[in-house]
Specification:
The complex is a heterodimer of chains A (362) and B (132). With 362 residues, chain A is α/β, with parallel strands linked by helices. Chain A is built from 13 helices and eight strands. Chain A has a seven-stranded parallel sheet with strand order 4-2-5-1-6-7-8, sandwiched between helices. The longest helix of chain A has 28 residues. The two termini of chain A are 38 Å apart. In chain B, strand 1, helix 1 and strand 2 form a beta-alpha-beta unit. The chains are: A alpha/beta (362), B alpha/beta (132).
C-alpha cells in the first residue's frame, strides 16, 4: 500500500495532493512511483505561467484571475514559487498572502514552493506539482514564478501559455528588445497601468512585437499608427477574443491581418489591484489556448518542453552520478593533473565522461 | 538531505499589527525553514485550509486583539477535522498568563509572550515537531 495512493489524487483529495507534492519536493522515491501511476491521467489542465519582475503584481493578478476563472465555472490550481535563501536555505513564501480570499473555496488549491537553489525562476519540483494538480482535476493551473530579472525563463518549459507582466518606470525601449525574458511572452500584460508612463510601455512592447513578426517574415517594419498589435490591445480592452481583430476590414498597412494573428501576442493593460483589465487577460489566455489546441501547436510545444526537461533531468543525474560515484575521486585526480600540467582539460574530460558510461564506476 | 520544516505564520482575528509575526517569519527563515505568510485578519477556516494545502509541519498563530481563547482552539479543532492533527500549533502575542493553561488544554503546544528570544521559538519547533 503506497503512502500516496493515486486514487486519492485522482479524486482530488486535498490532503493527499498536498502531501504528494511535499514528498516530490523532497525527492521521495515512493512519490515518484505514485507520480508514474498518474501517467495517462494528466494533460487536461491548461497550464498558465505568470512571470515578471518583483513587485510587478504577479500575485495580485493571479488572485484576480482566479476570481474570473471561478466565475466561469473552472477549478483553479495555483503553484506559486518564491526564492529560497542561498545562505540559510529558508524562505518566506508570501505569494499566498494576496490570494487568501480564495482559501476556503473548494474549487481552488494554492500551493507555495520555495525555489530551493534552482535559478531559472521555478523550483525543481514545480512541474511535478503541476502534474499532481492536473491529475486532481483542476481545469487551469497557474504557475507564478519568483520575481524575475532578464534571463529566468524556465517557465516557458513548463507552461502552455506565458503571461509576462511589465510595469511602468523600469527602463527604456532598449530593455524591451534585449534577449531573454521578453522573448517568452504569449500574452503581455502592462500592470499598474494607472501610473504615468504605462502607454509608453505598451507602445514599446508593441513596437518590439511588430519588429519580431516582421523579422520572422523577412519583410520591413510597417509605418503608421494603425497596426495589428494596437488592435489586439483594443480588442483585449473590449473583451474580444484575439481572433476577432483579424477581420477583412483592417487589412490596410503593411500587415496582412489574415495571416498575422497567430504570431502576434496580445498586449493588455491592467490595474490588478482593482481588477481592471483582468477579464481581458483571461479572455486572451483562454483564446490562445483554444487556438493552440486546435492547431496542434499545444501538442508541439508540450513535446518540445518535455524533450528539454528530459535532457535537463538526465544531465542532472549524470552530474550526480559523477559526484557520488567513484568519479568523484577521479575528478580530484584529474583536476590536480590539469593544474600540474600533466593533462589537458579536453582529454581529462574524456576520461571522466567514460566513467559516466560505466554508470559511475572506474 | 534533511527535510525542510514548513511553517504557516498566520494572524487570526481583527487586530492590524503584524510586526511580531513578521519578525518570527524572518527568524524562522534564517533558521532554514520555509515560512508561508498569510497576512492579517484570517479566519480559522482560512488558516486551516492554507495549512492543509501547504502541507505544513507547524502553524504559528499571532494575536493581539484578545480573542485568542476563541480563535486558537478553533484552529486546532478544524485541523483535527481536516485530518491534520499531526501539525504542531503554537501561539504568540499579547496573551495573559492566566489564559495559557486553558490554551494548552485545547492543544496549543506553547504560548510565547512579547520579548521571547526568537531562538527560543526556533528551538521549540525543532524539539516538538509531531511529524517525522
Amino acid at each position: 500500500m503506497t503512502e500516496y495512493p493515486s486514487g486519492s489524487i485522482l479524486a482530488g483529495d486535498i490532503r493527499a495532493c498536498a502531501r504528494l507534492i511535499s514528498a516530490l519536493e523532497n525527492g521521495d522515491e515512493e512519490a515518484y512511483r505514485s507520480l508514474a501511476s498518474l501517467n495517462g491521467k494528466t494533460g487536461h489542465a491548461q497550464i498558465i505561467g505568470v512571470t515578471g519582475p518583483p513587485g510587478s503584481g504577479k500575485s495580485t493578478l493571479t488572485d484576480k484571475m482566479i476570481g474570473v476563472l471561478r466565475a466561469r465555472g473552472m477549478r483553479v490550481g495555483v503553484v506559486a514559487v518564491d526564492p529560497s535563501s542561498p545562505f540559510s536555505g529558508g524562505a518566506i513564501l508570501g505569494d499566498r498572502l494576496r490570494m487568501q480570499g480564495h482559501a476556503t473555496d473548494p474549487g481552488v488549491f494554492i500551493r507555495s514552493l520555495a525555489s530551493r537553489g534552482k535559478l531559472g525562476g521555478l523550483s525543481e519540483a514545480t512541474h511535478a506539482a503541476v502534474t499532481v494538480l492536473d491529475a486532481a482535476g483542476y481545469d487551469v493551473v497557474i504557475i507564478e514564478t519568483v520575481g524575475v530579472g532578464q534571463s529566468e525563463i524556465d517557465i516557458v518549459r513548463v507552461a502552455d501559455t506565458v503571461l509576462l507582466i511589465s510595469v511602468p518606470g523600469l527602463g527604456d525601449d532598449i530593455q524591451v528588445i534585449k534577449a531573454g525574458i521578453m522573448e517568452i511572452g504569449d500574452v503581455f500584460v502592462v500592470n499598474k497601468s494607472d501610473r504615468e508612463g504605462s502607454d509608453r510601455v505598451v507602445r514599446e512592447i508593441r513596437a518590439m512585437l511588430e519588429t519580431q513578426v516582421m523579422l520572422k517574415r523577412g519583410s520591413s517594419v510597417p509605418a503608421g499608427p494603425d497596426t495589428l498589435a494596437s488592435r489586439f490591445e483594443e480588442a483585449a480592452h473590449h473583451r474580444l477574443a484575439p481572433e476577432s481583430v483579424t477581420g477583412a476590414g483592417i487589412a490596410h498597412g503593411a500587415l496582412r491581418a489574415d495571416n498575422t494573428a497567430p504570431d502576434m501576442p496580445p498586449v493588455v493593460k491592467t490595474v490588478a489591484e482593482t481588477g481592471e483589465g483582468v477579464e481581458a487577460v483571461v479572455d486572451a489566455v483562454l483564446a490562445l489556448h483554444a487556438r493552440a489546441v486546435a492547431s496542434g501547436e499545444l501538442a508541439a510545444r508540450r513535446y518540445k518542453s518535455a524533450r528539454f526537461r528530459l535532457r535537463d533531468m538526465a544531465l542532472k543525474r549524470a552530474l550526480k552520478t559523477l559526484a557520488d560515484g567513484e568519479g568523484a575521486a577521479l575528478t580530484d585526480t584529474l583536476a590536480r593533473d590539469i593544474v600540474e600540467g600533466k593533462k589537458d582539460i579536453y582529454g581529462a574530460a574524456g576520461e571522466l565522461f567514460a566513467v559516466l558510461s560505466r554508470g559511475g564506476k572506474l | 538531505m534533511e527535510r525542510i520544516i514548513r511553517v504557516l505564520v498566520a494572524k487570526p482575528g481583527l487586530d492590524g499589527h503584524d510586526r511580531g509575526a513578521k519578525v518570527i517569519a524572518r527568524a524562522l527563515r534564517d533558521a532554514g525553514m520555509e515560512v508561508i505568510y498569510t497576512g492579517l485578519r484570517q479566519t480559522p477556516e482560512q488558516i486551516v485550509q492554507a495549512a492543509v494545502q501547504e502541507d505544513v509541519d507547524v502553524v504559528a498563530l499571532s494575536i493581539l486583539s484578545g480573542a485568542h481563547n476563541h480563535l486558537f482552539p478553533r484552529v486546532v479543532e478544524l485541523l483535527k477535522e481536516a485530518g491534520a492533527d499531526d501539525v504542531l500549533v503554537f501561539g504568540g502575542g499579547v496573551i495573559p498568563e492566566d489564559d495559557i493553561p486553558f490554551l494548552k488544554s485545547k492543544g496549543i503546544a506553547e504560548v510565547f509572550g512579547p520579548g521571547t528570544p526568537t531562538q527560543t521559538t526556533v528551538d521549540f519547533i525543532r524539539a516538538n515537531l509531531k511529524r517525522k
